[in-house]
Amino acid sequence: MNIFRFFTIGALVLIALASCTIVTTTNIPGKTATKFPKNLNGKYVLEYPEALSMLAVEGVDTHITFKGNEMIIDNTEGQTVAKLGDSLFFSTIGKQQYLSFGVSPQINVFKLVKKGRDIQLFSMCGDVTSSNDLNSFFSNVKEIPGEADENGEVGASSYEVTIEDDKLDDYFNSSVPMKEPFLLKKVK
Cβ(63)–Cβ(187) under 8 Å? Predict the structure, then answer.
C-alpha cells in the first residue's frame, strides 16, 4: 500500500468534484526535521474533508500514528510505516509546520495546524485557472497538461512549482488553496 494514497486520491477526487487543481512542488519547504515534535506523537483517526467523505469506508477507521521519526498508517489494507527522510518530511518555516509526501518534482505539501489535540492538514490544491494564480507565491511555475482518457477527452491540468519559503504562508492565507482540511483526531 502506498503511504500517500489517502492524500493523493483525495486531491484527485477534489479535481473531479470541486474543480480543485493539484499543485505539487519540486522542493521541501523550510528546515526539515529528523523527528516529529513530541506534541504530535500519538494515535489519530483520519477524517476526510466533507467533499471527500465518500473515500472513507463506513464503519472502518484509518489510524495514523506519529512516533519518533515514523508515521504509521493502519487500515483495512494493513499497516504501513514511513520514516522521515524517505518520501516523508516534516519541516518548519518559523513557527509554521508542514508535512510533505513524495519525491521531486511531485511533492505534496500540507500546512500542518495543531488545533487542541487534533491536527488539521491543509492541501496546496486549489482554485487555479492559470499559472498567473501561482506566480506571486512560487517560482518556476509549470503547467502540466492533463492526459487524454480512452475517449480522447483531455483531463484537468495540474501545476508544478518551486516553493519560496518567505511566500508559502501567504499562499495558504490567499483565496487560491482549498480551505477544508484533512483532520487527524487524536485518540490517545
Answer: yes
How many Cβ atoms from other residues are within 10 Å of residue 103's Cβ?
9
Of 53, 143, 161, nearest to 106 by C-alpha is 161
CA distance 44 to 41: 9
Closest CA to 37 of 6, 69, 62, 12: 69
Question: Residue 159 corresponds to which cell in the numbers above?
Answer: 501545476
Whole-prediction pTM: 0.85
pLDDT computed for residue 147 by the predictor: 83
Distance, CA of 134 to chain centre: 17
Looking up cell 492526459 gives 147
DSSP SS3 for 92: strand
Distance from C-alpha of 161 to C-alpha of 21, rounded to nearest angstrom: 13
Give me the sign of the Cα torsion angle 165, 166, 172, 176.
negative
**Distance in angstroms (rounded) separating the CA atoms of residues 140 and 43:** 37
Q: In DSSP terms, which residues pair with 74 in a beta bridge?
A: 63, 79
What are 10-26's pLDDT values in tens digits?
Answer: 444 444 444 578 999 99
